[in-house]
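[Automated response] Your request has been received and processed.

Submitted sequence:
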Amino acid sequence: MDGPAASYRRQGVMQADGATPCAAADAKAGRCYDFFVFPTERDFYDVSENRKPKLDVENYAGSLKVLWQGESVTVQSVTGLQYLDKTHFEETDVNPIDFLNLDYGVNSHTFTEELHFTGETDSTKWIAGVFYLDETLDQDQTGDIGRYFRPLIESIDPVAYPGGFDPTGSAIGIPALFARVKNTQDLQSWAVFGQVNYSLTDTIDAVFGLRYTDEEKDFRQRVQFEEPTFTAPLYDYRDSIQDENVSGKVALEYSPNEDMFLYGSISTGFKAGGFNGGFLFDVNQQQPYDPETITTYELGLKSTWLDGKLRANAAAFYNDYQDMQLFRIEAGAGLIPLQILDNAGEANTWGLELEMTAVPLEGLNIQLSLGYLETDLAKYVTDAGANLSGNDLAQSPQLSGFAYFDYQRPLGESLTFLSELSFSYKDDVFFTADNNPILQQDAYWLANLRLGIGGASEHWRLAFFCTNLFDEEYLVHGFDLASTMGSNQLFVGRPRTAGVELVLRL
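Generated structure:
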């Protein structure tokens, strides 16, 4: 698949002199500039690009499932293969001048095998199995920085700055370089797992689960500057890590009748450590990050009412993270941003989730959900000394909600009228762990509509649709590039989009 990639919005964070920081409210309102004194575009969806972002993807995947049913044991094998070759040509600076463009290339081959055994007796249900993963990952990433200024830099001293190459920014204070980062990683992971559901009484079950995981990564990173007449290697880094973990689950489940299910559980989870595959220019910046672990406590209820016309679920949870893995961007040498992967010492989240599905009358289906979330980055001091302890986690709205209405009505014997209406709500979120008030999205609503007709046999559907019905302007993410360009990189949500769709099911 070859096609266009997402364009970004540029958000200036400097005053008109290009040097004095803007107030947060002015930056969010689009009244500020970048280092080069270009103003933020007036229209929310306007971008300034000197090349079109592009995405080239070649992806193949397949799986083989084999099932054997014995008298007391069922054996299932699932084998998977995947090949991916992807390059993202990014318009990074979203600036009228050609200052910063990054290309991300990745090629991966992945093999997985899972073999599990299941069985049951009068009082127990059990599952046991093994899992294996083998993956080879190759990354080829390039960064083109300061190209617009190369003629000026070269004119100062062609010998000292051949072709305008100036990685330190010594000539005019702005670096100019073309860097290539090549990463190779071999990953092998295997696990053994098992779970037993044991009936204590006719209505109470106890659940015990255990999993052992062993994961090893061999990593190599080569970084160099490339110019038309020479190549300057920076470093060749090699290392390997191995992580082991035992995680488990204990739960009690209570089913007083077929319409009511209550549960309480304590479980642990694990995410292996790894290496930073981003743009780094000093071998000392390449530090492996540690494994992340989580302990989750949950209480929940699932219920059915009114002869199946109403289903209501509720859950309360508390998550305790140790060494949470986080991504951030911080200022590097000159104007070169550093992409950092490291660990926060402690973090926790807790919240409530409510869900309801109802069929109040024939043809009408209603789905409602509501979430409440509190987060705390309890202990996090960066290597640069910034204390972010006590901040909210990025992309964590306190309140979120969703409502969906689906109404269908026969039109004679061969046609059906179809209608769908949905609303979603998302509370304020920060995009970065430092809770930068500029990189924040205020609460917003979205609405979507679909109206159409379809065949009574459900083999076809013709419908008009409109997403983001009220044309809400909102952001879905953002990165802090203020130290590099005096501006941030924002990912905008889709504007109101309308069209007609024809769906055929053979």
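Summary generated for your ticket: Helices lie at 24-28, 150-156, 482-485. The first strand starts at residue 2 and ends at 4.
If you did not submit this request, please reply to this message.
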